[in-house]
Design brief:
- It comes from Streptomyces yokosukanensis.
- GO terms for molecular function: DNA binding.
- By secondary structure, this protein is of the alpha+beta class.
- It folds into 3 domains: 2-108, no CATH class; 119-255, Endonuclease, Chain A (2-Layer Sandwich), CATH 3.30.870; 267-322, Winged helix-like DNA-binding domain superfamily/Winged helix DNA-binding domain (Arc Repressor Mutant, subunit A), CATH 1.10.10.10.
- The chain has 15 helices and 11 strands.
- It has helices at 2-8, 18-30, 43-46, 65-76, 83-104, 110-115, 122-135, 151-156, 158-166, 183-192, 233-249, 267-277, 282-289, 293-307, 312-322, and strands spanning 33-34, 50-53, 56-62, 116-120, 139-144, 170-176, 196-201, 208-211, 215-219, 226-230, 251-252.
- The protein has an 8-stranded mixed β-sheet with strand order 4-10-9-8-5-6-7-11, with helices on both faces.
- Helix 4 (65-76) packs antiparallel against helix 5 (83-104) and helix 12 (267-277) crosses helix 14 (293-307).
- The radius of gyration is 25 Å and the shape is elongated.
């Protein structure tokens, strides 16, 4: 349906079709419209005139006319020969929408809309990421969950990483320990040189990308086809604190993982044992550690054999007896997690 709607409403980014004009005008007057109202006018979402309501994804809220006008004019300046005609058209159209908004006060808080923005669709997410990359001047922090990174994932964002490296931007990346075994990641880090510092943990939070401590991106659904762009200072500061505390617990990629102190038990098996002791199922453990369920069960079988356990119940008892129910993370100095330590250390 979306494809047919797009073909029925062909127009440039400097104007709206009649159907789109009616839906957008109604959204500005009322503050939001049902998502179904925009099904026949996909141009409103494609031009980012409407976007999902963070509080209810079944509704769409209008982008402020002032912000919309700025977006429309951005493309106008790429074609100097037609700039005067197109600027005049865009200004005239959106002065009318701004007037509608002022009448009912529907857009009385534009700062809130820009502080949390829902990005619906991979193309919209990529465009926002590219925009943030272009504006970044100092630092990028990322958390990359899952296991071994596929070549396609690494290649997808390579152009952004190379652009950042060219401007001297420093990057710090957090991965799971499993990612150490991926040759693609090792090749990527070798290519980036000392621009990127990587550390690993048994498990990390969901994907997070922070640019210059001012804008953050996090997933908004399970399949990551939607994302949130966060610019609210309190939210960004909170995510920054989470990253810094995980970073202090993490182990540099160039350093070996600590020995478990128990013969025949690997570091990964120790992590699995600790999660088993907490009562987690195989699938949950596999997801948190970034491994497959099959690999997880193979490690559990080796644990049972090494500890002499004939059943899951007996395995739980043996795990507690040898102390594997406690994660042996790196020791932290006193006061390592205080607020005064939230400033990031220099990047290698």
């Amino acid at each position: 349906m979306a494809g047919r709607g797009a073909e029925q409403h062909p127009h440039g980014a400097d104007r709206l079709c009649a159907a789109g004009d009616r839906v957008y005008s109604r959204a500005v007057r009322r503050g939001r419209v049902p998502r179904t109202d925009a099904e026949t006018v996909p141009c409103l979402l494609e031009l980012a005139l409407l976007h999902p309501d963070p509080d209810d994804m079944d509704w769409l809220v209008p982008t402020s006319p002032q912000e919309v006008m700025t977006r429309l004019l951005r493309g106008v300046y790429d074609e100097v020969s037609e700039s005067q005609r197109r600027v005049g058209s865009a200004v005239a159209a959106f002065e009318w929408y701004a007037g509608l908004g002022r009448q009912l006060g529907a857009l009385a808080a534009p700062a809130e809309g820009s502080a949390i923005r829902v990005l619906d669709g991979l193309s919209r997410i990529q465009a926002a990421m590219d925009e943030a990359t272009e504006a970044c001047t100092t630092e990028v922090l990322t958390v990359q969950p899952g296991g071994i990174r596929r070549e396609a994932e690494l290649t997808e964002g390579l152009h952004r990483a190379l652009a950042l490296r060219g401007r001297g931007v420093r990057m710090r990346d957090l991965y799971t320990h499993v990612a150490r075994h991926g040759q693609g990641l090792l090749n990527y880090l070798e290519l980036m040189g000392d621009t990127v510092e990587a550390r690993t943990l048994d498990e990390v939070i969901d994907r997070l990308i922070l640019f210059d401590r001012t804008v953050a991106f996090i997933p908004a659904n399970a399949d990551r086809t939607m994302a949130l762009e966060l610019r609210h200072p309190a939210l960004v500061e909170y995510l920054l604190t989470v990253f810094e505390r995980l970073w202090r617990l993490a182990i540099p990629l160039t350093a070996p993982l600590p020995d478990t102190g128990i013969e025949g038990i690997s570091h990964r098996e120790q992590s699995i044992a600790a999660l088993l002791a907490e009562g987690h199922q195989d699938a949950v453990i596999a997801e948190r550690l970034g491994i497959s369920v099959r690999t997880c069960r193979a490690h559990i079988a080796r644990l049972s054999e090494t500890l002499g356990a004939a059943s899951r119940t007996q395995l739980g008892v043996r795990i507690a007896q040898v102390g594997l129910d406690r994660q042996r993370g790196p020791a932290l100095p006193a006061g390592a997690l205080t607020a005064s330590d939230q400033e990031s250390p220099s990047v290698r």
